[in-house]
């Protein structure tokens, strides 16, 4: 066993290093994969470059210190996940060298079970990995969704003229001639320059140049429905890529602009979404709003089910004509495709008065992403294989597989017992995001235990904790009292939910019978009891 030594000249003399050869490491360039374990001495709070190099090579390391502050120790461990132990110089002789041998053996041991990367090999660079996230949609369970999405895109597609400004502000800012108010430079202009001077004729002419070519008819907005973590934001990016012309030498590209509707300030709705020209208000400068930024591109209203009701009414006016109304300037046509997404039950929200029915009706194109629990075991296994190859969590170590020149991942396998637990989980509260969290946490724990295999004890599988919107007020009981004389029976379960939301009271459920007891009012849904009035169970 070859041990590296940096900063501890008498290491071999102070330790009983039977069966171990020590090599002095003067600089980080001396460190390579021949070293199986490393000792580094740290003086003060400056860390030698050899520590960072050892972390890159995934060489287990013991750090020998005089005294380090708590924060310095924490920083050292966070920066160098390969550090196995921190010892004070005086206690170096108490080091258990058998444990060192065990650590090296575990790190070099062959894993067992399912080998990561055998079903869906992914690139090792983070950008290449992220660019292939769309592969999570390629499965038989997603076939219906993909057909619906393709049909929706067929209804939405519209030809767009070239974008007449740069939405990324890639040019030098415009300088204005003070007397004439005209710009020194010629087009193309930055979008921020046009919004800033939107009251001036030259800017107004550029902004409204394509008004006469507006779409007729307007493309329908698309609503993406699905539970949290099913991939709605990823689908929005894919749709934007399909509906927006690619960048070329002669053509700029419109932006995909997400809007956080849950945090929308209805008092400043127009200012936030459309913006304002310079000089409109004395207290604030000009602003490029989110919808203005999305002109000739795509605006994505994320979590639209949480949008405040007053903002919903204001949004309807934009859907009517897709016109951008910058405060203090003339409106212009936007050539914007509209996407929205929510994990809420919008039908229930409409019933309870928290979402406008006419806004929901505008979304004639709707597609629903199926939850992860509808995927087969083979499909889930492919997703697990994809997630386990994330290079940010499970990179390749510098050590090579026997007989090959290719490096192994830090965690190479998932045991069959761990895979069975992962495949049997319901993923009812996060879907793909929950699967990703479970696998990534398990890999971190396996790495912390120097294991090449993700085992069941590395997993954290939590039971379902939350309920759907329609059931959030429901309390399950074993039995309900008999319906009193004068009880009111409703014809639709939605009326029970609506009353509970309006009065902020719970719903009691026993079997198929729902009840609300609110003072003297007993509201019921279910079979009407017979006249003798036995207790309903």
Descriptive notes:
The chain is α/β, with parallel strands linked by helices. It folds into four domains: 2-108, Response regulator (Rossmann fold); 114-122 and 382-458, no CATH class; 140-368, Rossmann fold; 473-525, no CATH class. The protein has 18 helices and 26 strands. The strands form eight sheets. It has a five-stranded parallel β-sheet, with helices on one face. Helix 15 (377-387) packs across helix 16 (416-424). The longest helix has 18 residues, at 431-448. The chain is globular. It starts with a strand and ends in a 12-residue tail after the last strand. Mean pLDDT is 86; it is low at 532-537.
Which sequence of strands runs across the widest sheet?
Answer: 2-1-3-4-5
CATH H-level superfamily title of the largest domain: P-loop containing nucleotide triphosphate hydrolases
Percent helix: 25-40%
Amount of beta strand: 15-25%
| Continuous helix count | 18
**Termini separation (Å)?**
72 Å
- Give the uncertain stretches in residue-range form: 532-537
CATH class of the largest domain reads Alpha Beta
Task: Please summarize the sheet with the most strands.
Answer: 5 strands, parallel
Radius of gyration: 31 Å
Shape: globular
Overall number of domains: 4
Topology-level CATH name of the largest domain: Rossmann fold
């Amino acid at each position: 066993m070859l041990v590296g030594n940096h900063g501890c000249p008498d290491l071999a003399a102070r330790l009983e290093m039977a069966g171990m050869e020590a090599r002095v490491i003067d600089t980080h360039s001396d460190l390579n994969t021949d070293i199986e374990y490393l000792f580094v001495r740290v003086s003060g709070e400056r860390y030698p470059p050899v520590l960072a190099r050892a972390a890159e090579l995934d060489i287990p390391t013991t750090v020998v210190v005089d005294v380090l502050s708590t924060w310095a120790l924490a920083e050292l461990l966070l920066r160098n996940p390969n550090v196995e132990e921190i010892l004070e110089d005086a206690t170096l002789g108490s080091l258990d060298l058998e444990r060192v041998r065990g650590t090296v053996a575990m790190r070099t041991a062959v894993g067992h079970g399912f080998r990561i990367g055998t079903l869906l090999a992914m690139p090792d660079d983070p950008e290449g990995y992220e660019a292939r996230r769309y592969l999570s949609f390629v499965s038989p369970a997603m076939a219906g969704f993909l057909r619906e999405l393709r049909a929706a895109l067929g209804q939405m597609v519209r030809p767009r003229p070239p974008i007449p400004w740069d939405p990324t502000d890639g040019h030098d800012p415009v300088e204005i001639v003070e007397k004439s108010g005209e710009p020194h430079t010629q087009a193309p202009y930055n979008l921020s320059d046009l919004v800033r001077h939107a009251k001036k004729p030259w800017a107004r002419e550029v902004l409204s140049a394509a008004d006469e070519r507006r779409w007729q008819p307007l493309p329908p907005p698309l609503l993406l429905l699905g539970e949290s973590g099913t991939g709605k934001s990823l689908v929005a990016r894919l749709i934007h890529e399909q509906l927006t012309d690619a960048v070329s030498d002669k053509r700029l590209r419109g932006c995909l602009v997400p809007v956080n509707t849950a945090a929308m300030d209805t008092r400043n709705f127009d200012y936030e979404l459309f913006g304002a020209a310079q000089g409109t208000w004395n207290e604030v400068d000009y602003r490029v709003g989110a919808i203005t930024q999305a002109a000739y591109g795509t605006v994505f209203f994320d979590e639209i089910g949480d949008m405040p009701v007053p903002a919903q009414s204001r949004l309807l006016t934009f859907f009517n004509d897709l016109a951008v109304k910058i405060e203090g300037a003339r409106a212009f046509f936007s050539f914007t495709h509209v996407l929205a997404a929510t994990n809420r039950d919008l039908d229930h929200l409409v019933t309870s008065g928290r979402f406008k029915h006419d806004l929901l009706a505008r979304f004639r194109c709707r597609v629903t992403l199926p939850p992860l629990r509808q995927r087969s075991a083979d499909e889930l296994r492919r997703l697990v294989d994809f997630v386990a190859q994330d290079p940010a969590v499970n990179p390749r170590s510098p050590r090579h597989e026997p007989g090959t020149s290719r490096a192994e991942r830090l965690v190479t396998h998932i045991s069959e017992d761990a895979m069975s637990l992962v495949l049997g989980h319901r993923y009812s509260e996060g879907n793909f995001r929950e699967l990703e969290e479970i696998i990534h946490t398990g890999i971190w724990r396996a790495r912390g235990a120097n294991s090449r295999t993700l085992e069941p004890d590395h997993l954290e599988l939590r039971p379902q904790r939350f309920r759907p919107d329609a059931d959030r007020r429901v309390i399950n009981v074993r039995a309900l009292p008999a319906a009193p004389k004068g009880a009111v029976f409703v014809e639709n379960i939605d009326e029970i939910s609506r009353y509970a939301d309006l009065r902020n009271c719970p719903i009691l459920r026993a079997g198929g019978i729902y009840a609300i007891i609110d003072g003297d009012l007993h509201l019921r849904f279910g079979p009407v009891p017979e006249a003798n009035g036995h207790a309903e169970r």
